[in-house]
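Let us work through a complete example step by step.
Step 1: write down the sequence.
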Amino acid sequence: MVVLAGVLFAFVAGLLPASPADAADRLVIYSGRKEKAIKPVVEAFTKQTGIQVDLKVGKTSGLANEIRMEKARPRGDLYISTESGIVEILTKEGLLEPYQSAATKAVPEDFRSAAGTWTGISGRARIILYNKNLVPEKEVPKSIFELTNPKWKGRLAIAGTRERTTLAWATALVAVKGETFARDYLKGLHANDLKILTDNTEVWQGVGRGEFVIGLTNSPNYYLARQNNLPVGVVYPDQDAGGFGTPVNPNVVAVIKGAANPEAARKLIDFLLSPEGQRVLVTQDYEISLIADVNSSEVPPLQSIKRTAVTAQRLADLEEETLKLLTSLNPNW
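Step 2: predict the structure and record it as tokens.
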């Protein structure tokens, strides 16, 4: 019975969160990126450095709230976000530790914090995904603003704002076009029976299966759909001169203030921005490299995309207002 009790205790202890003393021996990452997207590059980091990693995966917003709740005694060392607005907010709240190096300074200024608290590690463009069997080539929309046309009624899908990239997209719309224009445009999408889904996976799978004709989603999902032999095409929208442009949301990394293992966290940041780390992100996850001279494989290089002109600071300032706007139009956002 004593032996059995000991085994049971060990099993239960393995399920409990690590104590601060244990955390000092391992790098603890809070990741808004899905495990399949971030785990390969984390494993490459461990192989190169020998540093062991505990990966906690969740929604970007939920993990940000955990960082707030744990600020007196942080359990995480490093935070990976799916967009920059939330890390700007955490910066203002004093919850992130500045870190700059030669690697972070190689990232374009619009993809890193002016305060040095966060840096982009890769990007995802906000694309139009369409089913090639259901949309004739000559009718493929080149702008998000064409999607209010009644011919797309009941044929459009987007993920709700639990996917932070959706909120960043809508916030960019408010920032560049103004709240009145954004409200009218979103009303037009709703008049076309826009379907708001749980996440981006449902969007690309639904478009690929023909449940929807067009989806607004992130650029890696085009490649995931193709990997699954789905008949999809892609448009980087609003690329005309003077147009809205295509938002490019950076995946962002930051050291949590008060982290038990800050030195390992800094090493991982530099690894993510190294040629090896970028190669994993770009070739395996189909993300856009933010570093010059990285082979982008099938993915269009950053320099080839006309990007929406909006700063992370502006997104942070407008995100709460934008979320209220969205939910006032439809509570499913």
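Step 3: interpret the result. The two ends are 53 Å apart (CA to CA).
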